[in-house]
Amino acid sequence: MTAHDLAALIRDRAGLEPVRMGLILGSGLGHIAGQVEGTAIPYADLPGFPHAGVSGHNPNLVVGTLEGVRVAAFGGRAHYYESGNPAAMRLPLEVLKALGAESLILTNAAGSLRTDMPTGSVMLLSDHINFSGLNPLIGERTDARFVPMTEAHDPALRAGLRDAAAAEGVHLHEGVYAWYSGPSFETPAEIRAIRTLGADAVGMSTVPEVILARFLGLRVAAVSVLTNMAAGMSAENISHEHTKAMAPLGAAKLEKILRRFLRDGV
Ligand code: HPA
């Protein structure tokens, strides 16, 4: 099925009103999709959608209203490390675009490289480093593949998220996210290396979706929930279990920011 066929199928089930914004909810954050008032469509009903086989995700697309804004919330994403395909989220993002969305907010769980950003804090991405060297547009044949990435993280969306955090009294850090392919976590030497290169947080997602979103003409911004100090930075154990256990600490902050951001007009 093409993105347009899938969008038609979704409109049949969830109604014709165009979607304004997409939300992609990362590890331990999928419950926010459940707060959207609307229609939940399991990814399994959407041919070509990734299976989102990572525990801690909620593999549904929920189309409906959150704080008065028509959104499409993805309760989980496909990661490069599940399939070896860095473009695994291309079809879902094409569908989002076909549903009428203008912008996309990405969320993820990440490791912190800064001692002033402890576990449980939230960080707005000012920019990213594609440390994996992979790219979801490899093989794309049109000149549209030469996507400018100078202001990939949209200044106006970022300002709106910053304002929303301030209005809610939530401290929103800001920094650079490095994409490491996973699924193994990083070594302490790798963390020291990317810190030297200018990274503030590290994770296994988001960068390919930012690239795809810009390719599709969607404005995009991303927020990390910091679920641990990165490898070698503390005695904290680093595991997927730990990520899922710690995500709710930051998720409550993220939820306040997102709701206020939507309510105050996007
Ligand atoms: N590294 C990579 N991805 C992550 C981490 C980490 O430390 N924590 C949560 N996701």
Automatic annotation (TrEMBL):
One GO cellular component, as annotated: cytoplasm
GO term, biological process aspect, one: nucleoside metabolic process
The UniProt record lists the keyword Transferase: yes
EC number: 2.4.2.1
InterPro entries in the cross-refs: Nucleoside_phosphorylase_d, Nucleoside_phosphorylase_sf, PUNP, Purine_phosphorylase
Binding site for a purine D-ribonucleoside: 186, 228
Keywords associated with the record: Glycosyltransferase, Transferase
Pathways involved: Purine metabolism; purine nucleoside salvage
SUPFAM superfamilies listed in its UniProt record: Purine and uridine phosphorylases (SSF53167)
Every Nucleoside phosphorylase domain range: 21-263
Residues bound to phosphate: 27, 57, 77-79, 109, 205
Pfam families: PNP_UDP_1 (PF01048)
Gene Ontology terms for molecular function: purine-nucleoside phosphorylase activity
Cytoplasm found in the keyword field: no
Role according to the record: The purine nucleoside phosphorylases catalyze the phosphorolytic breakdown of the N-glycosidic bond in the beta-(deoxy)ribonucleoside molecules, with the formation of the corresponding free purine bases and pentose-1-phosphate.
Family designation: Belongs to the PNP/MTAP phosphorylase family.
Subunit details: Homotrimer.
NCBIfam families: PNPH-PUNA-XAPA, PRK08202.1, PUNP
Protein name: Purine nucleoside phosphorylase
Organism: uncultured Rubellimicrobium sp
